[in-house]
TrEMBL record:
It is a multi-pass membrane protein. Its main location: membrane. InterPro entries: Cyt-d_oxidase_su2 (IPR003317). Keywords: Cell membrane, Electron transport, Heme, Iron, Membrane, Metal-binding, Transmembrane, Transmembrane helix, Transport. It comes from Secundilactobacillus collinoides (Lactobacillus collinoides). This is Cytochrome C oxidase assembly protein. One of its GO terms (cellular component) is cytochrome complex. Belongs to the cytochrome ubiquinol oxidase subunit 2 family. GO terms for biological process: aerobic electron transport chain.
Length: 339
């Protein structure tokens, strides 16, 4: 394995980390539109919190997929063909979620506004659940042939670990979204988001414990990388407890950053566990290794120059856009508490 191969494996991990941190609270806000918002005014405010950002946050996913295609074409081909149906459903969910914001804003009747609000909520829920299910099913080892073709059955994708993983990621995104809502609003919405998260964090901790047990049973992470796996899991639990403490003490930034870093720790756990592989085969002989899946050295070298030239510009734009829209929004009622 060369340094450039390792660099691009890490960069793809960074891109997925950025996606789950940023799009995680977008998914959470999307789920909150109908599950959390009580009336039209509240749902308007909830949507406004991510209005300037949600479409830009999805760019991290597109960039991660593009980087995977260019740097590890064999990984891209095996993953995207093997999980074609799951990725197709994710795409449908993202499309419905994306167009729902625009269509809702232009609907003249309450009936159709409600329809598109449900489209945003269900689309956000399905996207988060399917992402969690896909990533936690692929770490168990999937049926593959010597050429990297995934020959999956229903239980390859839907099993105890993938279902618990999907639910856990969905709950983490919802909590992350409520933490963002606390950060972006004042008044009753913030107070209610805090109250909800006080209830949801104990459920999340139970889910994380169950996830660890299933991870031990169904993956080789503890066998091959026991120390680093335990270390990452301890960090995950500490971040969850820190976020819970932040919610209880109304430390909004602590809660938001900790819940976002918890999502990143899941990505780190997966990338740490599969290394030096990119796809784990049920028969380990057929696993795809980083060194065998990458593009040519020239391609990786050229991509590295482009990435380190353009990435700072993109990061500056993202930071600027969040700085411009950093102010809190008032809850739609007369009794608004001071921020």
């Amino acid at each position: 394995m060369t340094n450039l191969q390792l660099l691009w494996f890490l960069l793809i991990g960074v891109l997925f980390s950025g996606f789950f941190f940023l799009e995680g609270f977008d998914f959470g806000i999307g789920m909150a539109i109908r599950f959390f918002g009580k009336d039209q005014a509240e749902r308007d405010t909830i949507i406004q919190t991510i209005g300037p950002h949600w479409d830009g946050n999805e760019v991290w996913l597109i960039t991660a997929g593009g980087a995977m295609f260019a740097s590890f074409p064999m990984w891209y081909a095996s993953l995207f063909s093997g999980y074609y149906i799951v990725l197709f459903l994710i795409l449908v969910a993202l499309i419905f979620r994306g167009v729902s914001f625009e269509f809702r804003a232009n609907m003249e009747t309450a009936r159709w506004r409600h329809f598109w609000e449900w489209a945003a909520t269900i689309g956000s829920f399905c996207a988060a659940f399917l992402f969690g299910m896909m990533f936690t099913s692929m770490i168990q080892g999937v049926p593959m042939d010597a050429e990297g073709n995934v020959i999956g059955t229903f239980t390859t994708y839907v099993n105890w670990l993938s279902l618990v993983g999907g639910v856990a990621v969905t709950l983490m995104c919802f909590i992350h979204g409520l933490n963002f809502l606390q950060l972006k609003t004042i008044g009753s919405l913030r107070d209610r988001a805090q109250a909800w998260n006080k209830i949801l964090y104990p459920l999340l901790i139970v889910g994380e414990v169950l996830f660890v047990v299933l991870l031990f049973i169904f993956t080789d992470f503890f066998k091959l990388k026991a120390a680093s796996t335990w270390g990452i899991l301890i960090v995950l639990v500490v971040l969850t407890l820190l976020a819970w403490w932040g919610v209880a003490g109304q430390h909004n930034w602590v809660a938001f950053l900790s819940s976002g870093l918890s999502l990143i720790s899941i990505v780190v756990l997966i990338f740490n566990g599969i290394f030096p592989r990119v796809m784990i085969g049920a028969n380990n002989v057929h696993s795809i290794l980083i060194k065998n899946a990458s593009s040519s050295p020239y391609t990786l070298h050229l991509m590295t120059i482009l990435a380190f030239t353009l990435l700072p510009i993109v990061l500056i734009y993202f930071i600027w856009s969040y700085w411009v829209f950093y102010k809190r929004l008032k809850s739609p009622n007369k009794d608004v508490k001071a921020a």
